[in-house]
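Morning. Coffee machine broken again, so started the prediction first thing and wrote up yesterday's gels while waiting. Chain of 150 residues, entered below exactly as on the submission form.
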Amino acid sequence: MLNKIIIMGRLTRDPELRRTQSGTAVTSFSLAVDRDFKSQGGEKETDFIDVVAWRATAEFVAKYFTKGRMAVVEGRLQLRDWTDRDGNKRRSAEVVADNVYFGDSRRDGADRGEGYSAPAYGAPAGGYSAPVGGSSDFAEIDEEDGELPF
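Came back before lunch.
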């Protein structure tokens, strides 16, 4: 049997980090996921999908994602049966996230004036420069030979 789902959309609200009585981290959020086709009226439709993440994934989402941020969620679909306050039987569907990835770059959000708190990963401060002088592990290749040494 297989229960695997991958969705990509924008967070509709900031994630909510909570802890169970045993201290396990759990985060709930919702993604707005556009459909690939338009309705008969010519409008693009959007699905709002509830997602729940546990443990380290929950802490990661709560720390680095905010409303409006694009996210890719990989997980499984889970259906829950419950009873509302009036005693009516209800059923809800949600994605239980195994992995959550950034669906956009930090620069994308900055261009829209949105302030994301995710760290920028790149070259070390001060950049990188090749060593000058001293010994080198590279050997000169005689261009007249015509053959590569590998």
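The radius of gyration is 24 Å. Going to sketch it on the whiteboard this afternoon.
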